Amino acid sequence: MIREKSPVKKNIKQKLENVRKWYRYQFFGSANIRIPKEKQVIDANIANISFSGIGLYSSTPIGKGKTLKIKISFVDKHGKIQAEIATGKVDWQSKFKSMYITGIFFDNELSVTNQPRLIEHLTWLIDTYKWPQPYKDQRISML
pTM for this structure? Predict the structure, then answer.
């Protein structure tokens, strides 16, 4: 028997996706997650990033609601490895086969002041690949 998604669940999912303030971008990089209260470190791969959060894949569960310090590492346009720090909280987590997919909200949106190399890299990606501006409200151009 094939089950179709309930119209209510489908509508809720669409509404949640439509309320996102920032675009999410596919992003190649890694994240080193520190859970300060537990003194635990988890390595993860970045699935996507926005100015307000990050999606990760890890082999270890992080735990919904946990407060984190995230070291985001990536290769810039010059082939140099860069890293920036952000803090956040796990919004959701789901197991997929042997991996855990995790969504994290940053405590503060990414900014030129706090993550200059990451913002420069995202700006370069957006301009190079003609991706949409990060803010969904087209009246506002951030970059």
Answer: 0.82
